[in-house]
Design goal:
This protein is an alpha+beta fold and about 150 residues long. It has three helices and nine strands, in the order ααβββββββββα. The strands form three sheets. A four-stranded antiparallel β-sheet has the order 6-7-8-9, with no helix packed on it. Strands 1-2-3 form a three-stranded antiparallel β-sheet, with no helix packed on it. Strand 1 and strand 2 form a beta hairpin. The radius of gyration is 17 Å and the shape is globular.
Length: about 150
């Protein structure tokens, strides 16, 4: 089981933000709700701090509501410098696997592997700082990881 201490939230937020134009938000919300549906998070209120608290009364920046949708309080979250990734390539040569390659002007790149099945989908990633073209050409043989494992 993944605990809060094992997740690099800054890296997760940065990588998700890079993929915003290509995300299917309904599918993402449903997947997050399914994965986090077992969490017990309660809402707090007022006082100038975050609106949410976890079951121990600690500040939290997200709440899974009764409808199982994730609500996020961004008022007190740290602001990060934005890095702009531009989609370079998309490969949909098979029905159930899609690859999306994106890069920055500085040569930092990420390739997303999306596998779609009847009842579930998976999103895996690989990143690098050089040689995007060679890695794109070898995308089918690369080792992809979950975003929090990068």
């Amino acid at each position: 089981m993944v605990t809060q201490q094992e997740i690099d939230y800054e890296k997760l937020a940065k990588l998700l933000a890079k993929q915003i134009p290509s995300l299917d938000y309904e599918k993402l919300a449903n997947t997050l709700a399914k994965e986090m549906g077992q969490m017990v998070i309660t809402g707090g209120g007022g006082g100038g701090g975050t609106s949410f608290k976890d079951e121990n009364g600690n500040k939290a920046y997200g709440l899974i509501g009764a409808d199982r949708y994730l609500q996020v309080d961004v008022r007190n979250m740290p602001v990060q410098e934005s890095v702009e990734y531009v989609t370079q390539d998309v490969d949909k040569t098979t029905e159930d696997v899609t690859y999306v390659g994106s890069a920055t002007s500085d040569g930092v790149w990420i390739i997303q592997k999306i596998e779609i099945a009847v009842n579930e989908s998976s999103f895996r990633y690989i990143t690098g700082t050089e040689d995007y073209s060679t890695n794109w050409d070898n995308r089918a043989t690369l080792t992809y990881k979950r975003i929090f494992e990068l």
